[in-house]
Amino acid sequence: MGTNEDKFKRVISHAKEYGFIFQSSEIYDGLSAVYDYAQNGVELKNNIREYWWKSMVQMHDNIVGIDSAILMHPKTWKASGHVDAFNDPLIDNKDSKKRYRADVLVEDYCLKIENKIDKEILKAAKRFGEKFDKEQFIITNPRVVGYKEKITIILSRLGKSLEKEDLEDVKNLILELNIVCPISGSKNWTDVKQFNLMFGTKLGASSETATDLYLRPETAQGIFVNFLNVQKTGRMKIPFGIAQTGKAFRNEIVARQFIFRMREFEQMEMQYFIRPGTQNEWYQKWKETRMKWHTSLGMGEENYRFHDHEKLAHYADAASDIEFKFPFGFKELEGIHSRTDFDLKQHQEFSGKKLQYFDHELNENYTPYVVETSIGLDRMFLAIFSNSLCEETLENNTTRTVLKIPPFLSTYKVAVLPLVKKDGLSELAKNIYKELKLEFNVTYDEKDAVGRRYRRQDAIGTPYCITVDHQTKEDNTLTIRDRDSMTQNRIALKEVENYIKEKVSFNSALSKML
Length: 514
Description:
The protein is an alpha+beta fold. Helices cover about 40% and strands about 25% of the residues. The strands form seven sheets. Strands 3-9-10-16-13-12-11 form a seven-stranded mixed sheet. The chain has a five-stranded mixed sheet with strand order 20-19-21-22-23, sandwiched between helices. Strand 12 and strand 13 form a beta hairpin. Helix 2 (about 40-60) packs across helix 13 (about 375-390), helix 5 (about 100-130) runs antiparallel to helix 7 and helix 5 (about 100-130) packs across helix 8. The model has no long low-confidence stretch (mean pLDDT about 90).
């Protein structure tokens, strides 16, 4: 599919052309970094969310879910540190008048070095063929080792400078690396400044009496302020978790890369409350559990990696990202954070309410520690969509575009297609369609030649197509076509529902979580 940039452009155009994602309010020229999920996209998004929810809540005895409000008391964000510390380091180029995130400029520079490493590996793989040992090459090739050391030194310095809020050194790093503005090509940079990312709004009937509020920048705080409510009403014993999915809002100045970084987005988070002193054990356990969830999707273990943080957030004593190989490189998909007791203690102080847990086994009160798993639903959508989109050359030298989405996540599980409209085949196909609709999300298509209809279903990722033909009328059998292999099998009409259910249910993927 050409270069990674070409592939990413193809992902964006395919998402629109086949009804997955539209620019928000496009008829008014749109709103930057805000998107609408279209008719096929919303189904895929809902399926991803449901799979996360089932694996996180349904599959764990001690994790429950909530749905907290987007609007919260303004003291919430003072207590959490967002009012004072939820900032991005921004830098302007004086020639282009464009504004950039300083840390992203440095990370993009490192990504270019990563691309050089990939090229070295590709060249060596071609040179050595089957004898090529990739892992050995990475740790022994002087050029690759040098590139990796350079990346480590740069990111380590960036992390330490940001942690100390040494913005002058961040600018110096940009200058020393000779990073230029992508628009003007110049190094005429301003100083680096911090910018708060929260959206402000007001609550009240008049401007004189209105209360200043914020749209929540994360969903986690809704869990923390409900800790005692859930613990007492659910009679929860530590360790236990509270999960939530929902919208969050950030005034991203440099929003980019399609739905990867948006101003309105959706998170899937779980806060796991534990005894103080056990956080390292649970942190490691949740790192393993979450990586297992990702690999259960079958998108290739080589496309994931952990990235441990150099710079820790003000609330954390350990943090790691699960990064995924998007078309634009490895980027954060999910964060696992050991948040200590920071959040509950802060809310206890600012609210004046006691937020502690009485542990009957230890016979003592304490403020629980927390391990968090937080994943962006939109980023997960982009990971699955971009990884699944491919073009294949077929035996007859034609090509097809196909979305090889895991069948249990696909928008439609099956398409019902009459071979032709006449001879009663449409009526028979529509009856089958109506019966299957009770169990699955099904689509029906009778327009154009059946080959074209197959291609349309391939392009939206439908894993199975049922073709109703003249033989169906004779012996109650029909053809079922597999999207990935394109093989066609004839099965009895009465077996269709169970056949599809076995292939597209969450069960086989969820069983990998056990």
